[in-house]
Design a protein that fits this description.
By secondary structure, the protein is of the alpha/beta class. 42% of the residues lie in helices and 14% in strands. Strands 3-2-1-4-5-6-7 form a 7-stranded parallel β-sheet, with helices on both faces. A 6-stranded parallel β-sheet has the order 10-9-8-11-12-13. Helix 4 packs parallel to helix 6, helix 8 (236-246) packs parallel to helix 9 (264-273) and helix 8 crosses helix 12.
Length: 395
């Protein structure tokens, strides 16, 4: 059996992490795996590990925009020739942000699936899927997008029109060339079905081997930890405002991640006001080490997050996971008291104080429930069983 996994980037974020986990799990089960990337930071033909090849690289942002708008027949010919030589039983696309239409067309005739890692397929506003009033949106409706989200600056309207046209063309190729979409969350699956796609749910997994050397240490005072992109749509400013007003005793807010220029000034001002700790950017290994002394992980997303790996990492590292009631986050949080409306400061404060007062017995019960959820839904064994069932369906 042979599977080809494709992703634009070799290493970038959660989607690329999932592609890497998948390659390792399938390879260890005896399945032959080829891993193709289209990473602009690597040379064409460069390999980073056994079975990997960077199929196209060292291109500019302008080149990416052009190739997202047309069919690159040269790339199509090279990729088609490669696929016809390898003859895979399945092609699995992850985040393809370069020449998607060309790549999808080359996959036509093979059993091809794509994991959708965010809401950008159903939302031209960068996948945020949130209305200007802060409420969750039900997905793409072109006229309403123009009316509600891009009714101001003409440059924004041009940007939306471009994105909408590109996504419209990609939607056509996706429906014609990709047999099935995979959603890590049930929430996004509903959006995909509404758009007329065939969609199934396979939850994200984590490679347990990454946590073999993990050792939990005490957290006194308690640490409430946010890590990831420090952007406006991640709800970080709302979290800081709520933490400042909550004035919790014996609870530290620690933040790790690169601060976006758009909110940098306001972010650092709030960090100082509420005496939060800012650790800067941490790589994956540093984050796992940091979780050794963390009591609770918080995911305050204002955007529609799909199925964040942060929660799964919290499960395996015995951290109480809490977060906003957006996207797939409610499917992960074990205790409903740990969910909040990110648009209501008092609701965030309620959860902060709930964590502040949580005793060790409560924490143990929640962590036990979280870990069981992981082994029921997110272990490599569960993923392998569900994924091989998909392969057999396509055979």
């Amino acid at each position: 059996m042979k599977i080809i996994i494709m992703s634009t980037f070799y290493k970038k974020g959660g989607a690329e992490l999932q592609a890497g986990f998948e390659k390792n799990v399938l390879t260890s089960s005896g399945i032959e795996v080829k891993y193709l990337t289209f990473d602009p930071e690597l040379d064409s033909g460069e390999t980073k590990e056994n079975g990997h090849k960077n199929f196209a690289g060292r291109y500019s942002g302008c080149s990416r925009i052009i190739r997202n708008s047309i069919i690159d027949w040269r790339l199509y010919g090279r990729l088609k020739k490669y696929l016809d030589y390898e003859r895979p039983d399945m092609i699995h696309l992850h985040n393809i942000t370069y020449a998607f239409n060309t790549i999808a067309l080359a996959c036509k005739g093979y059993y091809a699936v794509q994991t959708i890692h965010d809401y950008s397929v159903v939302c031209p506003d960068g996948g945020r899927c949130v209305l200007p009033n802060g409420k969750a949106c039900k997905g793409r409706h072109f006229a309403k997008c123009m009316q509600l989200c891009f009714s101001g600056h003409s440059r924004d309207r041009v940007k939306l029109m471009y994105r909408s046209v590109i996504r419209g063309i990609s939607r056509m190729f996706r429906k014609q060339c990709i047999n099935l979409l995979i959603s890590p969350s049930s929430r996004l699956q509903k959006y995909l079905l509404r758009e007329g796609y065939r969609a199934a749910v396979i939850h994200n997994m984590l490679d347990i081997q990454e946590f073999q050397s993990f050792k939990k240490r005490g957290s006194s005072p308690k640490v409430l930890f946010y890590y990831g992109a420090v952007r406006k749509d991640k709800g970080i400013l709302e979290l800081l405002e709520a933490f400042k007003d909550a004035e919790p005793d014996g609870l530290i807010l620690r933040i790790a991640g690169k601060a976006d220029d758009e909110i940098k000034q306001e972010f650092f001002s709030l960090v100082k006001e509420c005496a939060a700790e800012y650790a800067g950017y941490l790589d994956y290994g540093q984050v796992i080490h940091e979780l050794e002394t963390v009591f609770s992980v918080i995911i305050p997303s204002a955007c529609m997050d799909n199925y964040p790996n942060v929660a799964l990492e919290g499960f395996l590292t015995e951290c109480v996971v809490c977060g906003s009631s957006r996207g797939g986050i409610p499917e992960l949080v074990a205790d409903r008291n740990l969910l909040f409306d990110v648009n209501r400061k008092q609701d965030i404060i309620r959860v902060i104080r709930y964590i502040e007062k949580m005793d060790e017995e409560q924490k143990i019960l929640i962590c036990r429930k979280q870990k069981q959820s992981f082994y029921d839904n997110n272990s490599p064994e569960v993923f392998l069983k569900q994924f091989t069932a998909l392969i057999n369906d396509g055979a």
